[in-house]
Amino acid sequence: VLQLTLAVIKPDAVAHPLILETLHQKILENNFIVVRKKDLWWRRKDSESFYAEHSGRFFYQRLVEFMSRQGPMIIIYIPCLLYSGPMRAYILAREDAVAHWRELMGPTKVYRARYTAPNSVRALYGLTDTRNTTHGSDSTESAKREIAFFFPEFSVQQWLDKE
Ligand code: CMP
């Protein structure tokens, strides 16, 4: 049976065209169906609300800033000055999609990823524990919630019923 997950390519990976393309190919090679794909750039409030469960953690501020733009759009986009940028979100379908995407990403912490899963995306392309290339839902319930956050017009239930 097909399962849906939400996968995000974070600003650090989107900023590097070769890494972005490599990650897109990896998705296709691993037999994921790309159900929806969207490039977007969060405002601070989106970032704060998506990561609300981490508020209070020592990395919360840097995470929120990394994942969003702070000023209005008229600020010229200079990634190396803003340390942030657009991201790409996917709804992916596959058998065991949630677990499979998480396995491809590897552990959250890049240092750990390099030791325990050297071929994972985060081990290969991650920069730091915050700039760790990708995000993936950690359960089918989170997938449902996160898909609704990124793609409010999409109905998970309707899609699964059709399959
Ligand atoms: P993500 O899977 O999007 O979920 C929470 C994010 O917090 C995580 O990926 C990282 O980008 C970020 N983060 C930053 N520092 C840490 C840390 N020390 N431990 C866990 N997550 C961190």
UniProtKB/TrEMBL annotation:
It comes from the Eukaryota. GO terms for biological process: negative regulation of cell growth; negative regulation of mitotic nuclear division; nucleotide metabolic process. Coiled coil: none annotated. Residues 2-158 form the Nucleoside diphosphate kinase-like domain. GO terms for cellular component: mitochondrion. The keyword Zinc does not apply. ATP binds at K10, F59, R102, T108, R122, N132. Keywords: ATP-binding, Kinase, Magnesium, Metal-binding, Nucleotide metabolism, Nucleotide-binding, Transferase. The active site is at H135 (pros-phosphohistidine intermediate). Its cofactor is Mg(2+). One of its GO terms (molecular function) is metal ion binding. Belongs to the NDK family. This is Nucleoside diphosphate kinase-like domain-containing protein. It comes from Electrophorus voltai. The chain holds residues 11 to 173 of 197 of the full protein.
